[in-house]
Specification:
The chain is α+β, with helices and mostly antiparallel strands. It folds into two domains: about 55 residues, no CATH class; about 280 residues, Cytochrome-c3 Hydrogenase, chain B, CATH 1.10.645. The protein has 14 helices and eight strands. A three-stranded antiparallel β-sheet has the order 1-2-3. A three-stranded antiparallel β-sheet has the order 6-7-8. A two-stranded antiparallel sheet has the order 4-5. α4 runs antiparallel to α11.
Length: about 400
């Protein structure tokens, strides 16, 4: 029988070029697939794992099981026709795609967005952040067997979707932000209903803290698991809570203020231990910050006034030749659009900078080595990635 040595870092053995030596014919290693339907894969994604016993020796990521190719689809459509496409790049938080794409068009076309529209956009982005975080925390808890948490957060997220439906008529895809501004301001009575929603979500988060974050089983499994070395942050381009959990205070809202964030009072949560538990706690505290931010924004959104700048006929709109990059801070880190125009009615080039490409592929493939297969779902969930954003 093959005998393991205590120092697991010696396995697998390596070739002179640094590649792993794993002969599946030797009987020491087995190939298994995790996903694409496993809930710990944060969507339609698959991990090709080589294991020895119950320990991961090698990991390769596979995407493309869901809708994809958005950038090229957008380059073959008029600017206004791109909005039903771009929102699908990150399904759980489509509004960041709306904002980044609209803002690149506005900068290239020289359009000044009304003040009321900027406040509305800030509100929509924070509402999107809140519902996305609530969906994530349910997925992270479920990857460790705590299904009750996901039921609570699914209910809380539906409350936010109710408010989105009031504003835009849509619950998932809103397309409320268009070049020049937004479709409308807040409906009558929205402030009171949002206040009630935030109070209910705050109560849910208090219960989540007790049942999940003060849970000895979750602590035992999550503390020390999935360590991200702070030196990797610049090497891999890690952003958002994954970077802040490693003690690196990266937040586009603070580093490169946009919309109305400079007028708001907040601090992004930062941790130091850089493990699964710390990243989860950073996101929990971010939820509380977002709840407070939404409360601040709702009080400041103008009740009347201009909310859409004058724009040409969108079906015949030709944007002047140029290029620009617009960034924002989504739940997973820096989210940006690089848009190039050539003076025609179509984008010349669109490139989306999403955190998922870095976190789900390069980072996960490195972090998976020497993991127990029971922990791969928990580590993957802690990176918070969306597969369509990878295969865009």
């Amino acid at each position: 029988m093959f005998k393991f040595e205590e120092d697991r870092s010696k396995y697998p053995e390596k070739n002179p070029d640094g590649t792993n030596i794993m002969d599946l014919e030797s009987g020491k290693y087995t190939k298994i697939w995790q996903g694409p339907i496993h809930p710990g894969m944060t969507g339609n994604m698959s991990l090709e794992l080589i294991i020895q016993g119950d320990e991961v020796m090698d990991c390769k990521t596979h995407v493309g099981y869901l809708h994809r190719g958005f950038e090229k689809l957008m380059e073959r459509r008029k600017f206004i026709q791109c909005f039903p496409i771009c929102v699908r790049i990150a399904v759980p938080e489509p509004d960041f795609n709306e904002y980044c794409f609209a803002a690149t068009i506005e900068e290239l076309a020289g359009i000044q967005v009304p003040d009321a529209a900027e406040w509305m956009r800030t509100l929509l982005l924070e509402m999107s952040r809140l519902q996305s975080y609530l969906a994530w925390i349910g997925g992270q808890s479920s990857s460790f067997g705590m299904g009750l948490i996901s039921q609570w957060t699914t209910w809380a997220r539906d409350l936010v979707l109710d408010r989105f439906e009031e504003i835009s008529g849509g619950r998932v895809y809103h397309m409320h932000m268009l070049p020049g501004g937004v479709r409308s301001l807040l409906p009558y009575g929205f402030e009171a209903r949002m206040k009630d929603t935030l109070e209910k979500i705050s109560q849910v988060m208090a219960d989540v803290e007790k049942v999940m974050f003060n849970n000895s089983v979750f602590k035992t499994r999550a503390v020390g698991l999935g360590y991200i070395d702070p030196l990797w942050v610049e090497e891999y381009g890690i952003t958002g809570p994954n970077a802040r959990g490693a003690g690196i205070a990266k937040d586009v809202r603070k580093d490169y203020p946009y919309l109305k964030y400079a007028d708001l009072d907040f601090e992004a949560a930062v941790g130091t231990d850089s493990d699964v538990f710390t990243r989860a706690d950073v996101r929990r505290r971010d939820i509380l910050t977002t709840i407070d931010l939404i409360g601040q924004i709702v009080e400041k959104v103008p009740k009347s006034g201009e909310f859409m700048a004058e724009v040409p006929n969108v079906l015949h709109w030709k944007i002047p030749k140029g290029q620009t990059y617009i960034r924002s801070e989504c739940t997973r880190g820096e989210y940006g659009y690089y848009t190039v125009t050539d003076g025609s009615g179509y984008p010349r080039r669109i490139n989306v900078r999403g955190p998922s490409y870095t976190h789900a592929i390069a980072l996960m493939e490195r972090m998976a080595i020497n993991l127990n297969i029971a922990d791969t779902a928990g580590v993957m969930s802690s990176l918070h990635t969306y597969p369509p954003e990878v295969e865009r």
